[in-house]
Design a protein that fits this description.
The protein has 118 residues and is mostly beta strands. It has helices at residues 7-18, 70-73, and strands at residues 4-5, 25-32, 38-45, 53-58, 61-66, 77-83, 86-92, 96-99, 105-108. The model has no long low-confidence stretch (mean pLDDT 86).
Length: 118
């Protein structure tokens, strides 16, 4: 398994997926940007590119991962945290060696990305 989705995150994702059409996947990956160089991408996907993507069933969720992102996100845990201010997904990536203060961007030992504004 490439990543982990906690039970709290699974419940939230399944609730959100119910509002989407049948055949939806969760897509998780990275893109360039943010003050540290890389940002996470988390959303829904309907089309899979079999040459570029890997599909894994993780804690009951069909997840699409871009093959190029797998070394960057391997071992990552996606969680959902609720507090008095609301709730949101949290991402714990053991490959991130630098994270920005706002928590939305990161850098790994091997991938700097394209730093920009947070």
């Amino acid at each position: 398994m490439t990543i982990t989705i906690t039970d709290y995150a699974r419940q939230q994702i399944q609730d959100m997926m119910k509002e989407e059409s049948d055949g939806v996947y969760l897509r998780f990956g990275v893109k360039g940007g943010g003050c540290s160089g890389l940002s996470y991408s988390l959303g829904f996907e309907y089309e899979i590119n079999e040459e570029l993507d890997t599909v894994e069933e993780i804690n009951g969720i069909p997840v699409v991962l871009n093959n190029q992102d797998i070394p960057i996100i391997k071992g990552t845990t996606i969680d959902f945290k609720q507090n008095m201010m609301g709730g949101g997904f949290s991402i714990d990536n053991p490959n991130a060696i630098i994270s920005c203060g706002c928590g939305s961007s990161f850098r790994t030992k091997d991938k700097v990305g394209t730093p920009g504004d947070c």
